[in-house]
Amino acid sequence: MGFGIASGFSLAGTWYARGPAEVALWLVSAALVQLRLLSNMLDGMVAVEGGGRKSRLGPIWNEIPDRISDSATLIGAGYAFGGIPELGWFAALLAILTAYIRAIGAVHGAGEAFLGAFSKPRRMFCITVACLLGAAGFASFAMPLVLWILVVGTAATCVDRLVWIGKKL
Fold first, then answer.
1. How many CB atoms neighbour CB 85 within 10 A?
2. Which of 3.30.470.20, 1.20.120.1760, 3.40.50.920, 3.40.1390.20 is the CATH number of 2-168?
3. How far is residue 89's CA from residue 111's CA, in Å, rounded to a whole number?
4. d(CA 101, CA 107)
5. Closest of 60, 90, 59 to residue 74, by C-alpha
6. Counting runs of H as helices and runs of E as strands, what totals does the chain give?
7. Among 98, 67, 72, 89, which residue's Cα sits nearest to residue 147?
8. Model confidence pLDDT, tens digit, residues 34-92
9. Per-residue DSSP letters for 61-130?
10. How far apart are CA 21 and CA 24, in angstroms?
11. Could you give the CA distance from residue 43 to residue 13 in angstroms, rounded to a whole number?
């Protein structure tokens, strides 16, 4: 969760920095997003390989930090240089909605719907690409474009998951 929150602050910091400091913040942001994904993957592996140590509180400890991390990163992207704050917030809300839809499907017997073109790894890949383009001096073009792509793609992912769950039920 720390990497996700730090990436959000680092992204927002690009709005204020110029020159080498701005480039450094874009690169640090890209690295933090990837570290957040790596941590999430390792967390999932530990959960799967935990061997009988599953707790009823496990889903809370797994899901809530993920939602906070995703939101911090996406909201930070909205406040990044070239970003559009409203799109960052909207992307964060849609990311939460994808997880909510997945959870509703699981609770009602459809199973875990991790499908969709803009699941978490792909959303974070897009943010990473935007960070690298920002470091190359293209933030004013890349960040708004990526935020729009994320909003449209994540909304489509919500629809895909709803349709899949509907077919399963």
1. 15
2. 1.20.120.1760
3. 28
4. 10
5. 90
6. 6, 0
7. 89
8. 999 998 888 766 655 555 666 777 777 778 889 999 999 999 999 999 999 999 999 99
9. HHHHHHHHHHHHHHHHHHHSTT--HHHHHHHHHHHHHHHHHHHHHHHTTS-----STT-HHHHHHHHHHH
10. 5
11. 28
Indicate the average pLDDT of the chain.
91
- Please state the pTM of the whole predicted model: 0.91
131's enclosing H/E stretch is helix 120-135
Structure tokens at 165: 């769950």
Q: What gap in Å lies between CA 82 and CA 129, rounded to an integer?
A: 14
Indicate if the alpha-carbon torsion angle 19, 137, 10, 39 is positive or negative: negative
Q: Tell whether the torsion through CA atoms of 54, 57, 59 and 62 is positive or negative.
A: negative
What are the pLDDT digits (tens) for 129-164? 999 999 999 989 999 999 999 999 999 999 999 999
